[in-house]
Amino acid sequence: MSAGTHAAAPAAAAGFGPSNPFYEPSALPFHAPPFDKIKDADYQPAIEAGMAAQLAEIRDIAENPAAPTFENTLIPLEKSGLLLERASAAFDAVTGADINPVLEQAKTDLAPKLAAHRDAIFLNAKLFARVSAVYQARSSKSLDPESVRLVEFAYDQFVHSGANLSDAQKAQLKTLNEEASTLSNAFTTKLLAANKNAAYATGTPAELAGLSEAQIAAAAQAAQARGAAGYVLSLQNTTQQPALAALSVRATREAIFANSWNRSERGDANDTRATIARLAQLRAQRAQLLGYPSHAAWKLEDQMAKTPQAALDFMNALVPLATAKAASEGKDIQAAIASQGGGFAAEPWDWGFYAEQVRKSKFDLDDATVKPYFELNNVLENGVFYAAARLYGISFKERKDVPVYQPDVRVFEVDDADGKPLALFYCDYFKRDNKNGGAWMSSFVGQSKLLGTRPAIYNVANLPKSAPGEPALISFEDVTTMFHEFGHALHGMFADTEYPSLSGVATPRDFVEFPSQFNEHWALYPEVFNHYAKHYKTGAPMPDDLVEKIKKTRNFDEGYRLTELLAAAELDMQWHTLPPSAPLEDPDKFEQLALARTRLDMHEVPPRYRSSYFSHIWGGGYSAAYYAYSWTQMLADDAYQWFEEHGGLTRANGDRFRQMILSRGNTQDLAAMYAAWRGRAPNIDAMMKYRGLVDSTVRAQ
Ligand SMILES: [Zn+2]
């Protein structure tokens, strides 16, 4: 059987036929999406037909009268859903980076259908029975290691979704899932309203002293948008609010902080405490039904860390270093308060304001002085591409003939060291109103030897666009973002695996940010930095004292940042290691005890998110996974240290890293893969060094 046989079957799906550009695989190089032909109305019918086609393929696999084998079960499963995949990949790209009302509507219509489609595959009992039979016999078969990994991966996905349960248990799981999803949605809705209500409003401009004229004008506009007079400062998701770094009236800072800290604990309709307490309890009960001691144990089984204990051990090792560094930063802040005759102890709402003054007095790094050395194109071609060329021998040439979804998007063909085409790389760097915030990487086409596909990867960011004819000058933070996203891109482009499910960036949460954060290190590597950091007018290299300032400011306030991150990650893990027998918790009491127990109850450094507004873990997919941010930082720093120990930026080092890590996707146990490359398991030593956590512990002793 092949995908092609079924491509015609669902042609009856409304509006889908040969005139739809997704009907056949793209004939363009690398099967690039034919954006010159795709219209907004083409996506939804193609995705719906793609779901129908995949269900027909799944039915054929599940109903096959022949005894289950790897070849008649796993292989066709990997080959199924190709139409859905090519339409969804293009759709995800345009809805993320170039959305409009037609696409918005299609996205809303498709979300529940796609969720149901996933369930229809993973709760198909006949299909699971076949996968399970192949899984049980996997060691006696003459399967190669990657195929064994695929069987295990597929089996775990089914088991994680509850395929192993009896019919009665499946019904119970469905009820728990529905309640969990209702609670999660309720949390998100409440928090949205709570955030809005907790905005700081004032009619007195004097209270906003310290903000720039533009910020005050924006606050007046925000008030107008709400139909109110005066000024409004909206609340951001995090505990700390960026405006606190500038606001000089202490009472204003305190009021804004209180709004933030108590936003969803006001005892009104938007109070989230009862919702999260029940959600935590319900997740523990669901984990028990699925055969795990806790929600975290269930979530971490397929991650690199594997167990909650491994994640907790990692965090516990970092806590004393992070808090010691934060305490030493706190002394500088207290000194700044004293030098201005403050006469009070630093509170959380003072930290940002005085940290900014300490930063200015120590480093005085002005963005306007730095940016002329970072012209976007130069950073891309002589920095990001250059580092990759030196490490991996790859080269880049722009392809103006490949169609794009928006005129700002550029496409490069990436050629391997032997000159053979390796991948397509799209970049969409400039900010637009119809683009999601932040920066990300994904693919139009993933690599797979089984499917005969090579990668077509894209990076998206929100860098400021310059006026026509003017150079795009960016900050060092933006430079770092470009290196970061390109690290993800390399992970996708170097993929060299048989099966699409295990290819490229299809890795767990606590691994996927490793190649990207690792690639950030090259931005400041002298040979790379000197190659791109040149004045856009004169071509002069950046003066040494400016380079030094950039290096030093990178770790400024790192103790605070890491401590607030660890506090949030510990809260996440404490909530999600609750046993199923635990009573309904009082969130405030639970939070206090959890922070005290993990020695993260630093009064002036509160968690980055409090339990009651921690949307990553209650509303998003990051439950029992918030530790992954710091975990992957550890991997990135530990890996970069290996390069430093072995001669730095060399082809030999790059090729070895590519061969053993970047090309392997999820084809091996990730802890074993890493240890084989590194020569040992990762540890926090390099992270302490690069993040400046070593000196402070020495000072604190
Ligand atoms: Zn990333």
Strand percent estimate: 5-15%
Largest sheet: 5 strands, mixed
**Portion of residues in helices?**
40-55%
Uncertain residue ranges? 1-11, 696-701
List the bound ligands. zinc ion
- Total strand count, please? 7
Number of helices: 29
Widest sheet: strand ordering: 3-4-5-7-6
Rg measurement, Å: 26 Å
What spatial form do the alpha-carbon principal axes imply?
Answer: globular
Which secondary-structure class do the elements indicate? mainly alpha
Describe the secondary-structure layout.
Elements: H1 3-7, H2 43-62, H3 70-79, H4 82-97, H5 101-122, H6 125-136, H7 145-160, H8 167-197, E1 200-202, H9 213-225, E2 231-233, H10 250-261, H11 273-289, H12 295-300, H13 308-339, H14 348-362, H15 367-370, H16 376-392, E3 395-398, E4 410-415, E5 421-430, E6 440-445, E7 456-463, H17 476-493, H18 509-512, H19 514-520, H20 526-532, H21 544-554, H22 558-576, H23 587-597, H24 615-618, H25 628-645, H26 651-662, H27 670-678, H28 685-690, H29 693-700
Question: What this model shows, in words?
Answer:
With 701 residues, this protein is mostly helical. The chain has 29 helices and seven strands. The protein has helices at 3-7, 43-62, 70-79, 82-97, 101-122, 125-136, 145-160, 167-197, 213-225, 250-261, 273-289, 295-300, 308-339, 348-362, 367-370, 376-392, 476-493, 509-512, 514-520, 526-532, 544-554, 558-576, 587-597, 615-618, 628-645, 651-662, 670-678, 685-690, 693-700, and strands at 200-202, 231-233, 395-398, 410-415, 421-430, 440-445, 456-463. The strands form two sheets. A five-stranded mixed beta sheet has the order 3-4-5-7-6, sandwiched between helices. The structure holds zinc ion. Zinc ion binds at residues 484, 488, 513, 516.
